[in-house]
Amino acid sequence: MGLEERRKRERENRKTAILKAARRLFFEKGFKTVTVESIAKKAELSKGSIYLYYNSKEEIYAHILLSDIDKFHDRISDLLQNPTSASEVLIRLANIYVDFFLNDRELFRILMTFMLHTTDMNLPEDLNSHIIKTTNKTINIIEQVFKYGIEQGEFPATLNLRQSRNAIWGMLNGVISLHLFTGIEAKRAEVIQGTIKAGLDIYIRGIQTNLPAR
């Protein structure tokens, strides 16, 4: 391994250590309480070392979100390739979403903090817009599923795509928020997945009552 390659690997390792330490602190203490100094201490680096890679804790926070949202998007980007039905795709998407956050509860709390307290964080406008744009890219897959359902005659043509997308997105986050940090650990996944499946079944049956008689 050459010197330049070794230095590059060291830089990447330090950036990874910074993000890992910061994500843990954001989860434990919340965005406002965490400082660059506390991140440096957690990562076992100097405060000056942090600023070699990131300009602020806001930038660190944004990079955590952007990286992990992209990972989730990659996992669901092919859901509409050879689908069985829109209803089944919605259930598969919901299961992936639940599993993703059951395996990474830190990220879910960080994401919810961003969604609920965006204006309090004073993120730079470009980073704030980038996070919103990246999140919307994922949310829009739900809209594409409903659009596919309309094209296949599974859902009524009068269905409001935007409202339906937001309803499902809200339900997923609401159910996960309600149960992810409470209840019996061994039954947590079953409760969340069961509640979401029941909610999806009710919603799908409801919109299908507006289908024209065949």
Features:
214 residues; mainly alpha; Arc Repressor Mutant, subunit A; Tetracycline Repressor, domain 2; 2 domains; elongated
| Euclidean distance between termini CA atoms | 68 Å
Major beta-sheet overview: none
Oligomer: single chain
> What is the CATH class designation of the largest domain?
Mainly Alpha
What's the helix-strand series?
A: HHHHHHHHHH
Q: Identify the overall geometry.
A: elongated
Alpha-carbon Rg, integer? 20 Å
Secondary structure layout plus pairing:
Layout: H1 3-29, H2 36-43, H3 47-51, H4 57-76, H5 86-102, H6 105-116, H7 118-121, H8 125-151, H9 161-179, H10 185-208
Helix pairs in contact: 1-2, 1-4, 1-6, 4-8, 5-8, 5-10, 8-9, 9-10
